Amino acid sequence: MRITIVGAGAIGGTVGAFLARGGEDVLFVDTVKEHVDAINRRGLTITGRAEFTVPVRATTPDDLTGPLDCVFLSVKSQHTEAALKPIVPLLRPDSFVVSLQNGLNEKRIAAAIGQDRTVGAFVNYGSDYHGPGLIMYGSEGAFYIGELDGSITERVTNLHSKLTKFTEAVVTPNIWGYKWSKQCWAACNYATALVDADAGDVLADRGARRVIVAMLKEAVELAKLEGVKLESFDGFLPELMIPSTPEEWEIAMDSLDKMADEYWRPADRLKRRTGVWRDIVVRKRKTEVDYRVGEQVQIGREWGLPMTLNARLVEMLHEIEDGKRPMVMENFRELEKMLP
Q1: What is the model's pTM?
Q2: 3-173 is classed CATH 3.10.180.10
C-alpha cells in the first residue's frame, strides 16, 4: 500500500519521513516547489528529537498521478477543499483519506468523498518546517486513529501497525472525543500567541491562566451540548475545565501550570512556542483560528451559547495577523476585564 502525504510540512513531513525510514512506500505532495525539489534532490531531513535524512519521492499536486491507496492529508484547515480537489479523481472505491489536521476537517473530507473513505486521526506531536527539505521534530505527543463511526476495522489496525514505526499510535473507538478535546484545547494554544513570548512564560501569569480556563470552560460546555464524550490527552483534563467554585478554579489553573512545566518549560525543550505563534511571527501567514476557535464560536451561537471570550480571542488574533494589535501581555489584561 502506497501512502501519499499531501502537505509535506511540519506534521506530514515528520510522520512521512519516519514511515519511509521504516520501509513504507511514501510519496510526498506539496505546493511549495522548492520543498519538493529539495526532497527529490537530497531527501527529507529530520532534526531535533531525531536526526536522519531519508531518500524519498515528492511531487507537486499538478504532477500527481493515481490511483492512490492511502492519503494522509496534512494541510492547514483553510486549504482542505483545495487540497482535495486533485486527489478525489485519483481515488479508487477502496481508497481512503486520513486527516492529520487540526480541527474537525473529517466532516469536510467525508462530504467530498464519503464517510466510508474517511479515517479520523488526532495528532499532538510538535514539529516545525524550517526550510526546503528540512523539518524540526520538536516534541513527542499523542497519536490516535479511528473510524468516524467508532468501529474497529481492518484498515485502522493495518494503519496502526505502520504508524508504530513513528510513534506509539493508538486505535480508538472515540476519535471524535479526542478531536473535540483538542478543539477545546485550541483556546489555550491560540491565547498564548497573544504575547510574543514562550508559552510557558505566558502561562506563568496568573491572570492569563484565569482567562484561559474561562475560555476552556466555554469550549467544554459546548462539547457537552454536542453530546461529545471528551477524552484526556497529554495532561489536558477537560473535566477540570468547568469550575464552579474558587477551589475548582484554582485546580484548573494549576493544571495549566503543570502542563507548562511538562511540555514548554523543560531545559531540553526544543519547541517552546506554538505553531500559531510561528505562523504569525516566522511564516507571516494567516493562522487556522477561524477553523479552530472560530468554528466553535459559530457552533456555540447555533446552540445559543455566546462563547464571549473565545469570540474576542478570534477578533484579537485577526487584529494581530493584520498588524493592528501588538503581541503583548496587555491583551490578557483586556480579556480579564471581560471575566464575570
Answers
A1: 0.91
A2: no
